[in-house]
Amino acid sequence: MYDAVIVGSGPNGLAAAIFLARAGARVLVIEGEATVGGGMRTAPLTLPGFRHDVCSAVHPLGMGSPFLRTLPLADYGLEWLAPPIPLAHPLDDGSAVALYRDAAMTGAGIGGPDGERWRERMERLAHAWPRLTPALLGPRPFSPHLLNWARFGLSALQSASFFARRTFAGERARALFAGLAGHAIRPLERPATASVGLVLGMLAHAVGWPLPRGGSQALADAMVRYLRALGGEVVCGWMVEMLAELPPARHYLLDITPRQFLRMAGDSLPGAYRTRLAGYRYGPGVFKLDYALAGPVPWTAPECRAAGTVHVGGTLAEIAAGEREVWYGRHALRPYVLAVQPGVVDESRAPAGKQTLWAYCHVPHNSDVDMSHAVEEQIERFAPGFRELILARSARTAQAMHAYNPNYIGGDINGGVQDLGQMWTRPVPRLSPYSTPLGNVWLCSSATPPGGGVHGMCGYHAARAVMGRLKIED
């Protein structure tokens, strides 16, 4: 009998398995696909020699995770690469606002009073990151560092639009912040969307926005190698349909969302709990594009050519309008596009002289619309001649993303809406959000606190709860 069986080999499933294996537990990870990784997979999606990250690509939370950073993953093949510029945000005047590791450099690029406001606020938050993580990446929004938490929380509870307009007078800083907050996949007028912009900004200054050499698969593979070195077992190609088919174990940890859990548990869950799980809210989806290019993207602004990530969306007003359209079930004519250029630091992704480009935009839940034209129009707007470099492309609608990864319900890569009503109560309000009415069955996916992102903290916290039942000491 295993001490724990984990279903799903995404960052949370692997984090849970590693935590328990380090404590001496006998663990088995079961992965439905042929390769491990969940959202951390890299594959040849276009032409020979081009390697593309299928889902996640840039991992600020991987470097900033209180758990992942304790793992000796460098000993198992993981190498983090830091782009010269973590992020650039192009504007229609041909310039771009760059987000550097150094908050002072970022402020200088913004210029004027807005630049000084950015430097002062973000330097303070970046310095406080280690003290804020217990609340930001924990199961509850509590922190012993009350002053730091209050400084962050008062701003974080605001809408991104209100925060940007209240804090900054000019469009450059407002646009930069809007691009960061756009990762919330919610209208920027909604409460607490400022929190996403603040977290991603402080992470850029605290740890950077790194990429794994060779692709996100390298992070998953390093975690699996370490897990196996600890005695853990991993089996791929086993798509679990029902809990009853799992091998005997003292506990089961499921890196899946509520909809999948309802199906796998059958009639074993109490009616009231089933009803609450059925009411769990999923958000908009993503439309994903991967390009094989004949050369680097010809961005007009030089900062974009050296940036690992480029936020393509224009002004605060434009990004807010596009995200609002998506939320209400419409496809934006000018979508906010998130683009990643691994080739600025990783020559292994494409043949010599050529490049890959990773890009996605937000779309309504379960959309089957091909947004390739709209995405390419946005990129061409800031990089004239981009289309002439395209050798091949791979496109996935929101429905196709769901088919690829069962956790991406309707194309929702966050495992459910992350707002004030469903942040720390996901998937349902319980004393331990990872527990279920089935005493030895636990949830450890991004549908539990602290939510989406490659940080492994959902799995870590679930494993800690399980460890208490196993009576294994830290």
Helices and strands, with pairings:
Blueprint: E1 2-7, H1 11-22, E2 27-31, E3 42-43, E4 52-53, H2 60-64, E5 80-81, E6 85-90, E7 96-99, H3 103-110, H4 112-136, H5 146-156, H6 160-167, H7 171-181, H8 193-206, E8 211-212, H9 217-229, E9 233-236, E10 249-254, H10 258-265, H11 271-278, E11 285-293, H12 302-305, E12 307-312, H13 316-327, E13 337-340, E14 355-363, H14 372-382, E15 390-396, H15 398-404, E16 441-443, H16 457-470
Parallel strand pairs: 1-2, 1-10, 2-9, 6-12, 10-16
Antiparallel strand pairs: 3-4, 5-8, 6-7, 11-14, 11-15, 12-13, 13-14
Brief description of this entry?
By secondary structure, the chain is α/β, with parallel strands linked by helices. The protein has 16 helices and 16 strands. The strands form 4 sheets. A 7-stranded mixed β-sheet has the order 7-6-12-13-14-11-15, with helices on both faces. Strands 9-2-1-10-16 form a 5-stranded parallel β-sheet, covered by helices on one side.
